[in-house]
Amino acid sequence: MSVTTAVSEDAPLALVCGGGSLPLAVADHVAARGRRVVLFPVRGAAAADDFAKRPHHWLYPGQLGRFSRLARSAGCSDVVFIGWLVRPALWQIRPDLTALMLLPRVAAAFRGGDDHLLTGMARIVEDCGFRLRGAHEVAPEILVPIGALTRRVAVERELADVALGLEYLQATSPFDVGQAVVVADRHVLAAEAAEGTDGMLARVAELRKGGRIRAPRGTGVLVKAPKRGQDRRLDLPSIGPQTVENVVNAGLGGIAVTAGNTITAEPARLVQAADAAGIFVVGVPAAAT
Amino acid sequence: MSVTTAVSEDAPLALVCGGGSLPLAVADHVAARGRRVVLFPVRGAAAADDFAKRPHHWLYPGQLGRFSRLARSAGCSDVVFIGWLVRPALWQIRPDLTALMLLPRVAAAFRGGDDHLLTGMARIVEDCGFRLRGAHEVAPEILVPIGALTRRVAVERELADVALGLEYLQATSPFDVGQAVVVADRHVLAAEAAEGTDGMLARVAELRKGGRIRAPRGTGVLVKAPKRGQDRRLDLPSIGPQTVENVVNAGLGGIAVTAGNTITAEPARLVQAADAAGIFVVGVPAAAT
Q1: What's the complex ipTM?
Q2: Hey, which residues 163-202 in chain B have their CB within 8 Å of chain A?
């Protein structure tokens, strides 16, 4: 191991936090490994209450100079982006001088799909001299392992739905679109795009309420997989207790994610919720498509 | 032309009618060609008011014997299925003796996706001695032609969105799933599955209301295309004035459909609505994917 790497793994980690419970869970995992974490919650995404009791620095989208200055003075060289981040509208961005100097790059990142935006942001952060890491690199315990996580396991009929879902996600992977699909009885009920996984599951719940779904309650699977060519440091699919709740409301029987590249920051809470609801959660091989 | 064909083209046409304005519009087109039409509205889909003033025979889903008897005694040998038909729940079906005799086929038709259901129904009707025709075969004027239908025409940026949408639909075509997608600024905003085109457009309207769509109002395209290998006699995509209204509510700029295999039963009303709203409607070559 080179000295540089050793130093940077020991140095504090800058954690840029979007919304949801994932950021603080990751912060706790990293801290438990003995590494100091400097939190940068992003306004409009992160919730103020969550950060009240921890040292943190708020960022508006676009405050590149502020981030660079504060992270550097805290001794950080590694940066992790974690949590959901609704693509901000242009008027919500408050570019500081550093961001303005990099404006062509920022603007380029803003065109195209979400992949493009995130990849663009990653490049900009690296231009500022930081090293972008994935949350799973600094806290590997958040990755879903292979096999059943729950008491209930997927039966053959359900595994056939999982296989169909993975095939569908592979076919749409080149389009920089959602990473999830709902399949029941070998029938694609919903495909995710801009609405996100929660929005898609809410739709399935509505369709079921309206009698539009033939498969009986308790059947059907939420399948999630990363897009092909996706930068794993930025946008791995994630599941949590809220996903379980939404899957139950949608009347599905379980969740399948690709093992080793799906994040769950609170595995104990996830499994507890799934077992209580009687649904299965399974990590499947990413190559089993 | 053989005698058989001549006879069957002259004989009355049995029109099995689902919901929406399409069935009666098709009936009028066929009648205008001098061919008698016998209407079979399906309970749970067709609206009673629409049929009050025309001779008709109501059908429950599953009344194969009743349909065969009535259609045959009216001298029909050709059958067209037209209009939306929500996949009925098993308890909504009232199989008569003929349907019960064909039960294994009916059951087989009920497994799998919608394509499977429709193809199964087609085979059953043909087993009963009828010839299944497409609505566009008995009334070719309902097919959308190639080129712009509206005053507003799609510009280059919009045509790029159309091309991306057609590519996406081609990629998902093997999955017996929806036939429509919404693309804005080369970004897939929504993909249709069990919710149908109207449901998908309502979602885009909601996303826009919630500030989740970056593309400004008036940009973005609804793209529709038939699935590969789809039986054209049964399930061609269709658009109408309601589609225009939903596209406007979703804040999109236009509609693109594949020419020669998309139905619009009321082209004058469609174009009038689109011109009034300032959106474009264009028929694109099906091979331009």
Answers
A1: 0.78
A2: 164, 167-168, 171-172, 174-178, 182, 185-195, 199
